[in-house]
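Progress narrative, work stream C.
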Amino acid sequence: MLAKGLLAHLDEPADEQSPCIVVCPPFTSLQTVGSLLEGSRVHLGAQDMFWKNKGAYTGQISSPMLVDLGCSYVIVGHSEPRGRFGVPEPDFDEEILAYFGDTDAAINRKLLAAVAHGITPILCVGETLAERKANDTDSVVAGQLLLCLNGLSAEQAPGIVIAYEPVWAIGTGEVCAPDEADRVCGVIRDAVGRLFGTGALEAIRVLYGGSVKPDNAQELVGRTNIDGALVGGASLKPSDFAQIVAAAS
C-alpha cells in the first residue's frame, strides 16, 4: 500500500523544521489510510467535499463526514473537478464535460464549509494553456482567488493553503519554470494581501503543483514565494514522494 510505503521512507522523527505532509487518498481509502497514519507525522486529507452538512444529496461527502474519518485537510477547486484539464484534453464532448463543472461559487461554498468545521482547505487556482498564451495568467488567478475566498475573514485567511497549479502542467510532464512559478505564487500572495492585509500575505502557505518530481522539487520549493508542493503522479511512488519531502526540508 502506498501509505505504508511512504511511512517506511519517513523514519526520522518530525521537529519544528520538518515540512507538513498531507496525503489525500480517494474517499474509499480514507478510513484505511487514516488508521495507518495514526501516530505518524503525516496528516490525512480528502480530494474534494460537498458544502452542505446534511440533506438529500445522494453521493456527496460532507465536512462532518470527513471530520469523522480524521481528515484535517481537503482539496477544493482542483482543475479537474472544474472541468479544466491539461494537454491533451480528455475525449469528452461538451455535454459530458459539463459533469466536471465546479464553479468558483461552488468552490467558495466548499472552502467556507471546510473552515467552519476545522478542516484546512487546499484551494487550487491556475490557468489553462490558452489563457497563458493570451497573457491572462495573472488575471485568471487573481479572479479565481477573489471569488473563491469571498466571505473568508482576515482572521481565517492565514489558516488556508493555496496551490498554484497551471492546468497545462498537470499530468503532462511539463513543468512551469521555477522563476515563473515563483512569480505567479507572488501574484497569489499579493492578491491575498489586498484582500486580507499584510498579516495574511506573510502567513499564508502557497504551494506549486504541476509535474513536481524529485529532480525539480528542490529548485521549486526553494523559491521565495513557494512554501511547498502539491504532488500528483510522483505521490504514487513512495520513494519519489519521500525525496520531495526531503527537498522541502
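Work stream C, second folded protein:
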Amino acid sequence: MTRYSDPNEFRTGFRADRHVLWSRAALAWERVWPALWPASGIAGLFAAAALFDLFVPLPWPVHALVLSAAITGIGLCLYFSFRDVHLPGWLEGARRLERTSGLAHRPISEAGDRLAVGGGDALAEELWTLHLHRMLAGIGHLTVGWPAPGLARRDRRALRFVVLLLMLAGVAIAGSDSLHRLWAGFNDEGTAGHVALDAWIDPPAYTGLPPVYLSQDTTLSVPAGSVLNLRAHGAGHAPGLAIDSDSDEASGFSGSQGEYGANARILADSRVRVRSSGRAIGDWSFTAIPDKPPHIAFAAPPGKTEHQVLKLAYRAGDDYGVTAVRAIITPHGRRGRALVVELSL
C-alpha cells in the first residue's frame, strides 16, 4: 500500500535495527560458509599433508607441481562457488528475523508501507493505524537464531569431517613444529631442513691457534685474517651466502650433487648468514681481533759480564707469543758488516 501522509505510527527503533544487523550477518554466513566447500577441503588436505611432512621426500619440482595444483584448484572452486553469492540487504535480514522470531504479517520488513488510497479519509487512517498496532503487538520478542548454512547438502559424504580429523592428527604429530611444517609446504624449506652444514674457523698460521668448529648460531671473537670454511651436505642447490661487511673476502657456494662449499676471510667485524631454500641454516657474528705488532725494548742499558762479554737485557712480547729474538749490531762510525746475534728467549 502507499500512504500519502507521513507514517509516524511505527518505528522499529535501535533494538530492532540491531537484530536486523545480526540477522544479516547470520544470513551472510549461511551463504558464504557452504560456498567455501570444496575449496576449504582442498586447503585442509594440503595442510594435513604438510603437517605429516609428506613433502620432505619429494623433489622440489614435484612439490611445486602439487602446490600449484592445490592453489589452482582452490581458486577455481572459490570462483565457481562465489560467482552467484551476494551479501544480504536490510530487507532480507528483516525477513529472516521475522521468520526466526515467529512474527506474522511481516511487521519489520513492511513497516514502511503506506496507504495506496484513502489518504485523508479519517476512517481509512484509523483502520491503518489499528493494523500497524496489531503488527507491533509481538515485536518485543525478537530472536535472531543460529545460522543454518546447510553445508551437508554440498558435502553429502561428510568428507569435511575426514579432512578435519586428518588436520587434527597432523597437529598432534607435528606438535610445536606445526607452524614450521605448514610454512615448509609453500616452499622447498622441507628439503632445506635436512641440509647439514659444517662450519669452522682456521686462524692465521702465525697465531698457532687450532681450528674452531662452529654451531649454527655463534658470536665469536677471531683473529683478523681468519678463514671461515663452510661445507653443505644434502642441499638441493647451492646455498646463499651473505656477509654484512665490506672488508671481508668471500666466494659464493660452489659444488654439485648436494655437496657445496664456500670460504670467507674475516678481516673486520662481520655477520655471516647462510640460507638454503629460504631458511637460515647458519648465522654467525664475528669480532675481528687486529694483530698488534710485536714489541721489544732494553730492560737495561747494554753492559758487559765479568768475562768482558757483551751483556743484553731485554723484554719482548706479542699477541700470540714470541718465537725468535735477534740483535743486529752495526759498527759505529765506520762502514762494516752488521753482526746478527740470535738471542735466547
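Confidence is low (pLDDT under 50) at residues 1-14. No further action is required on this item.
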